[in-house]
Amino acid sequence: MKRMLEYGELELTMHAIRKLVYFAVMESYGPVNIESESFFGKFFGKEEERIKVEEKEDGKVVVDLYLDIEYGVKVTEVGRNIIDNVTHKLRELGGIDEVKVGVHVTGVK
To answer: Which CATH number goes with the domain that contains 6?
Structure first.
């Protein structure tokens, strides 16, 4: 994915975007760990590989997160906080303007 910025061109790989999303999620309050949407993905692969990132034809980036949430926290607030944090990181550090983040809660621990 290539983006034109004020001072030049920025090329981001999907791995770099996943890493930015991973750090944004881990900085947020509430998530315990990142799960996978598939059964085998839960046992194989690292946490950051479980983050689903897709670039649409129009340049929009779609991020899907499957998370276990800490017991006792308000799920809607944690979800909103994660969406805001991921969107902010991708806009500020990655130069990605159009971001859609989906947070799917798979469990409470």
So the answer is: 3.30.70.1350
